[in-house]
Amino acid sequence: MWTPILVAATGCYALKLAGLSVPQRVLDGVRVQRVAALLPVALLAALISTQTFGEGLDARAAGLAAAVAALLLRAPFLVVVAAAAATTALLRLLV
Amino acid sequence: MRPIVRDALGIGAATGAYGLSFGALASAAGLTLPQTCALSLLMFTGASQFAFIGLIGGGVAAAVATALLLGGRNALYGLRLAPYLRPRWLAAQFVIDESAAMAVRDTPAETRLGFWSTGLAVFAFWNAATLLGAVGGQLLSDPRALGLDAAAPAAFLALLAPRLREREMQRVAGIAAVAALISVRFVPAGTPVLVAAVVTMAAVLVPRETPGDAASGEATRGETASGEAASARGGAVSARGGAAPARGGAAPARGVAASARGGA
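The joint structure predicted for all components is written out below.
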């Protein structure tokens, strides 16, 4: 487990340092900027769908629904996460 | 206390909430206490860390690759900050969403103060909270009984939500979510996320290779930036929107600061 941790951490640091070090024009294209804006959205959406529905429909779906409701009510981050966990746990306890 | 430093501490406290969740989830994912703390100390970029611990069970390569892809935006923040920050090797570690957003200032001195005070405040709170969360997480015997496997996607959703004001972002998120879910059946564990990212980028970018689109892309980005900054709440990753609008002046960063405190 330590090797991937150190590799990924070093890579993330290198990316930060690269931004401070490379000439402006290298990453200044419209296309690069667009990918930078869209990629995190795509990755996060993919993570949500696979981790919620990747093993079929189960109590996690209800947890995600609770998270959506909490977000719509403008709840803070911890409340959103806690609502999802509590809903899922409760459903597993009852069913 | 100077307003910039006060706002920086507010944002730091707000990210503590994310740090608590991260520590607990990392423990639930099977990382030891030192490993969890090492991620927050060394990687120190929230979305990458959440993705890493979420995917590490499925495969090492996908976890590392996704963490790096998510960390790529820090390089773009660095481009704008480069003229102001020395020494680079030290400043680099603190280039994150929040510090980049708070460094959108009118003068170089305030840019530096915004960056360093926010970067250091977030670093302190994030790592302390990670430790607390990890210690708490170690005490749990069965993470599933507490619904912690649903907590991770909920955390991702909270990070994603502030970016979904725009139709294009909603389209991207929808394509990626469906593509990932379809590919789960066909590719090794962990890689559906990467497949989805590639498919989505191809779907969204390729049809737009006409000269007139450079201008519309520019306009879209401007909207994204101000829209996200205005609606940012809860701090941490939603502060990312504030980092993009170099041309937007200091107002978006202040908005982020104020709403981040509200979220804490």
